[in-house]
Amino acid sequence: MTRTVMVRNLVAVAAITIVSVGLSGCDYWPPALQTQIEQLRSELQAVTMEKAQLENQYASFAKVKDDLQAQVDDLSRSNRDKSVMINSLQSSLTAAQGRLVKSLKVAPTKATAVKPSAKVPQMAPAKKKAPAKKVAPVKKKAPAKAAGAH
Taking 80 as the threshold, does the pLDDT of residue 19 lie above it? Predict the structure, then answer.
């Protein structure tokens, strides 16, 4: 029994020693391991800087995207307004043309009832632009010879 108690005490002391060394850490690091740790730290720092740079680029691209989307929305709204205006003008033009045709049909029948010899005034065709006058090219004068140069 004493021997088992002694073995138990030895195992307990060994366990406590191992746990205390494990918790306190070891102060000795091999140089190769220190080099690896420094290399990993520098890579981590470089990747962190690159991540920050990419996040800044992403933020600027998101801002540009939002600005462009706002422009697209404004242009779409303007396009819809112009389309409505065009449709309105087309319908009013069609209505005006219809009234013109009716007035031209009604006017000749009234004119013939009052005066059979009356002529219906026809609309004059639209004037065409006169072609631009062609300008003759300017001839350059030959340099005058000096009288006393002979």
Answer: no
